[in-house]
Design goal:
The structure holds 2 protein chains of 2 kinds. Chain A is mainly alpha-helical. Chain A has 13 helices and no strands. The longest helix of chain A has 34 residues. In chain B, 69% of the residues lie in helices and 0% in strands. Classes of the chains: A mainly alpha, B mainly alpha.
Chain lengths: 278, 302
């Protein structure tokens, strides 16, 4: 080998080493959390890095039961699912009109919706708290879902309006000639065409709602209403230093996100790098 | 297009929900901030009273400025790390001959999509003074003197939190920069090579200047993120920003003011909380506009 080429080989190896090292640092906490969640307290105290002698699946059962996670899991699926459906439906209807119909004040209305992307929603949380209370929606999952839908509309409209604009007009014009009304055109023709953008928005809303801690903390009070993240938070408060259960609980909250990520990492990346403005 | 009027019905649900739950509350928040309302009972207009208290009453003012300085520090440090690391890794990963790019991208992005609170608890375990993996690893390589109660000591608590914060965000920045680099036409790089530029020179003189709008946009994002920090900080410290407020940030302060905490069960009331929120909102809007102006000016056409 000529010296120049071997130099290049060395620098290539260094680059791969660097990449692998950073990947290891990134994955280490989650790997450690997985391994540690199967240990017992004695093993946790003996060494953080050793493998468990026996893989104690019962840690998960205990955490699941003591943390009331089956209820919280159901609550989280319910809240996340309905929020996604609501944002997609309501957001895409509005985006279709904003993208396709010229009416006075359209630009102003678009700006009005997009303004929500810049100011963090958290800062509006006190009046929403008061509003939910007067609507008897405070401490209800329904109220929380309405807030999530409203708070994520800006992002959905931002993405979907652009996507609707990219669809050729001829498709609808043919339908208009055939006598189809706007609702039929929207549901039958346009909605199926924007499916890729809907998937992207849906995944972003999933991540935001599933992971959220702040709004459930503010808007939910009775423990039967908790979402999974809020449930984990209270569980942590009750099981300080019983790390095997806390980690098992934390892993339970991570699992659905990781599974979905394995199947649709492309959409996660596309959606969340588009949604970073939030 | 025909059917115009009837079609506008499709716009209504979004308009109503957004107005009721987002736009109107922003304005209402500002209105609350001029009252002494506790959340229940009577509401009196007190003008700028809350703002005066916030900036003059030592207990509140000191906490406010300390929290703000921590947010600012978080922003500064995350700029160095996330933008620095993000850019370097993006340059490496966008090299054409690299194998396994998809895998690395996927792994680096992972921490960003996982719940911050859960990740925070996992880090809390790793950083545990007695049973944590970090101290154990330090001891294993003969650096027992470097061990710390990372989240408990006054001097290490916030730097540790900032490190965890940066690790979580870097992947997002890597991917964002990679996307921006893809949009730089290859002809520009080829032209630079024909003119005798090496790889590093091409990066410095051709790609970096073209990435300026992206860097500015990410700075804005970093800024909004840093001033929004809540879940991660709460998980790694607590509502009071332990130890002794050394990791207190504005959203924690806002929450305590509005909803109360252990030491102050009723907080300062909704009026005061709204004043804190309004100051934060004005600050964020001001800085965002500044960034957006800069981004507009930096925009280039290929």
């Amino acid at each position: 080998m000529r010296p120049e080429r071997s130099l290049r080989a060395v620098s290539r190896t260094m680059i791969y080493l660097l990449l692998v090292l950073y990947a290891a640092i990134t994955l280490f906490p989650f790997f450690l959390s997985l391994v540690s969640s199967f240990k017992d307290l004695r093993e946790l105290y003996a060494s953080a890095l050793a493998l468990p002698a026996v893989w104690r699946w019962e840690n998960y059962r205990i955490a699941w039961i003591q943390g009331n996670f089956s209820l919280y899991f159901k609550n989280s699926v319910y809240v996340t699912g309905l929020s996604i459906v609501g944002v997609l439906l309501i957001g895409s209807m509005a985006s279709y009109i904003l993208a396709r119909y010229a009416f006075p004040g359209r630009t102003a209305l678009s700006v009005y919706f997009l303004a929500g992307l810049v100011i963090p929603f958290r800062l509006a949380v006190l009046p929403v708290f008061v509003l939910l209370r007067s609507l008897h929606l405070f401490d209800t999952l329904g109220g929380l879902i309405l807030v999530y839908i409203a708070a994520d509309l800006s992002f959905a409209i931002f993405i979907l309006t652009n996507y609707f604009r990219s669809i050729p007009r001829e498709i609808e014009e043919a339908a208009v000639v055939d006598g189809a009304g706007p609702f039929r055109i929207y549901f039958r023709i346009m909605l199926p065409l924007v499916r890729p953008a809907l998937a992207t928005v849906g995944i972003v809303v999933f991540v935001w709602v599933w992971n959220d801690f702040f709004l459930p903390l503010v808007f939910l009070q009775t423990s039967e209403k908790y979402t999974l993240i809020l449930g984990l938070f209270r569980f942590f408060g009750r099981h300080l230093n019983e790390w095997q259960y806390v980690l098992a609980g934390a892993n339970i909250t991570l699992l659905p996100v990781i599974l979905l990520y394995l199947f649709a990492s492309g959409q996660f990346i596309e959606g969340l790098t588009a949604g970073v403005r939030k | 297009m025909r059917y115009r009027r009837r079609a506008l019905v499709l716009l209504l649900p979004a308009l109503i929900l957004y107005t009721v739950f987002v736009a109107y509350p922003y304005i209402n928040s500002l209105l609350y901030s001029f009252t002494d309302w506790m959340g229940v009972g009577p509401k009196h207009f007190i003008g700028l009273g809350n703002y005066m208290r916030l900036f003059t009453e030592p207990r509140l003012a000191r906490t406010f400025w300390r929290a703000l300085s921590h947010n600012a520090l978080l922003f500064g440090v995350s700029m160095l790390f996330t933008v620095g690391l993000g850019l370097s890794f993006a340059f490496i990963l966008s090299s054409r001959r690299l194998r396994g790019r998809g895998f690395f991208k996927g792994v680096y992005f992972l921490p960003y999509i996982l719940p911050a609170l859960s990740a925070g608890f996992i880090w809390r375990y790793i950083l545990h003074p007695r049973w944590g993996a970090l101290n154990e690893m330090l001891k294993a390589v003969g650096l027992a003197g470097w061990t710390h109660a990372w989240l408990g000591e006054l001097d290490t608590a916030f730097p540790t939190i900032m490190a965890v914060w940066c690790l979580r965000l870097t992947g997002l920045y890597i991917l964002f920069f990679m996307a921006a680099m893809l949009s730089i036409p290859d002809e520009l790089r080829d032209a630079a090579r024909v003119d005798g530029c090496g790889r590093l020179k091409t990066i410095w003189y051709v790609e970096l200047p073209l990435l300026r709008p992206t860097i500015l946009l990410l700075s804005l994002l970093n800024f909004i993120n840093a001033f929004n920090a809540f879940d991660m900080i709460y998980a790694l410290s607590d509502l009071s920003g332990a130890p002794f407020g050394r990791s207190d940030v504005l959203t924690l302060f806002f929450y305590r003011t509005a909803f109360g905490s252990v030491n102050n069960p009723f907080g300062e009331g909704l009026g005061m909380g709204a004043a804190v929120a309004s100051v934060m909102a004005l600050f964020l809007i001001g800085v965002s506009l500044f960034f957006l102006k800069a981004i507009q000016r930096a925009q280039v056409e290929y």
